[in-house]
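testing teh design pipeline on a random one, pls ignore if ur not involved
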């Protein structure tokens, strides 16, 4: 026989039987209920003055039934404030989950719980409207998705022959990220065909350099890349992987100035420069498409560069690229030109 919740009439009958000091088994028999059901009902709803109130018990049961199967997410105010603060700093849920154990030993939260908390603020997990008293945190996610959806597959397009040394000839030590000093580079476009920015990403640490371009040509790219690489020791500039864009045509000059071996990724294979593509998407959080980089102040770009390098990374065991990269610079007594950065071992 399926279980049925107690009705208000049954609870009032229980109150009457309690007044008459009937046993639990007598009450259960008269209501045709299991004695354990009656025992739990009385135990949970008896007051300190040993009074059973059926109306209060019924209201409590209805409230509990309404929230049945639901758990409060991020109940700890410390964890909740940490999550919200760092989401607004453009950290991903996975980065937050990994870093909180370093910043607050003993506290832990999974990235899945953070995603559930974000979408729980919206009715029907993102399909409905914002719940009263809640904050919509979806705009702080990387993709700003209104609802959680599975990732789709990406199709490759036609393949062109690289203009220089192919990525297929790249050394295994580069592919496996076993050393520091192998970089990827790309150009983030500006609006109206104006000069954009050059991005450099170190494959092992995820260190990001952002540099404004003076023009939309290969000479400007060579100047930007060689200028940033000039501050680094030789063992931290081993190789450079780029795409087949026209801004990367002058690779012999780039190799000559930087002493780095240049490789071309296969055309339309952006995943071969995954670190750089990921970095560009992070930058787009700050500067969406149609941004005019010619009017963006240099100091503002430096602040964004620092913010990205101060984000914890899962593959670095939730240390930041700046923390890891700096350890390799200290031995050369070299500092990075970033605002408010102190190198530590």
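output:
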């Amino acid at each position: 026989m399926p279980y049925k919740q107690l009705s208000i009439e049954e609870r009032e009958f229980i109150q009457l039987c309690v007044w008459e000091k009937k046993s639990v088994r007598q009450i259960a028999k008269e209501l045709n209920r299991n004695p354990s059901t009656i025992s739990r009902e009385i135990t949970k709803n008896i007051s300190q003055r040993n009074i059973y109130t059926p109306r209060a018990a019924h209201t409590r049961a209805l409230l509990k039934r309404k929230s049945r199967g639901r758990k409060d997410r991020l109940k700890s105010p410390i964890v909740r404030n940490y999550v919200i603060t760092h989401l607004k700093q453009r950290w991903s849920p996975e980065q937050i989950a990994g870093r909180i154990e370093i910043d607050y030993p003993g506290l832990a939260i999974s990235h899945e719980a953070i995603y559930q908390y974000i979408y729980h603020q919206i009715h029907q997990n993102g399909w409905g409207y914002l719940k009263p008293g809640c904050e919509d945190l979806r705009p702080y996610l990387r993709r700003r998705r209104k609802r959680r959806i599975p990732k789709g597959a990406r199709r490759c397009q036609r393949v062109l022959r690289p203009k220089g040394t192919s990525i297929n000839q790249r050394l295994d030590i580069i592919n496996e990220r076993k050393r520091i000093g192998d970089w990827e580079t790309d150009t983030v476009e500006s609006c109206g065909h104006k000069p954009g920015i050059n991005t450099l990403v170190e494959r092992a640490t995820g260190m990001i350099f952002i540099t404004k371009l003076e023009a939309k040509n290969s000479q400007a790219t060579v100047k930007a890349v060689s200028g940033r690489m000039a501050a680094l020791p030789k063992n931290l500039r081993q190789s450079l992987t780029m795409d087949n864009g026209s801004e990367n045509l002058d690779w012999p000059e780039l190799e000559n100035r930087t002493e780095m071996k240049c490789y071309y990724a296969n055309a339309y294979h952006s995943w071969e420069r995954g670190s750089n593509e990921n970095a560009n998407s992070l930058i787009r959080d700050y500067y969406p498409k149609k941004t005019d980089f010619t009017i963006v102040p240099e100091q503002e770009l430096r602040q964004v560069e620092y913010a990205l390098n101060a984000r914890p990374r899962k593959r670095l065991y939730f240390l930041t690229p700046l923390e890891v990269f700096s350890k390799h610079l200290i031995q050369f007594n070299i500092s990075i030109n970033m605002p408010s950065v102190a190198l530590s071992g």
